[in-house]
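Section 5.1 Outputs to date
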Amino acid sequence: MSYPQESVTFGRFRQTPPTGVSSGSAHRIGRLLIPAIGGQSILDLTDLRQGADTLIDGTPCYSIAARCPKVTTVELEFLIETTALLVRQIITTRERGKFLAREVRESIHINEPIDDTLFKHAA
């Protein structure tokens, strides 16, 4: 069974992000569920714009661009599956198009059974 793989490309180098394999998603999603968690939420983004739809590995995706309210020189582009609404990539650039990072989520599986042995802790 395969599970989602996440990585971030910094310039020419692809690696697991400094915030772990979640690329900070654990914090961003946690903030959606529990507002008392500090930091920025995806709901804080400003200047949202829909770009041209695109394909990622044959999967149709929306392209949504936005800015962080505290760092207006940073632009985020979210590539979101049109059917399952899963975030496939987040591309971060600085003003004038300078590339910073690309978060990639691959081999995404949803609504599939998970083997119970994965939840058993070795004594």
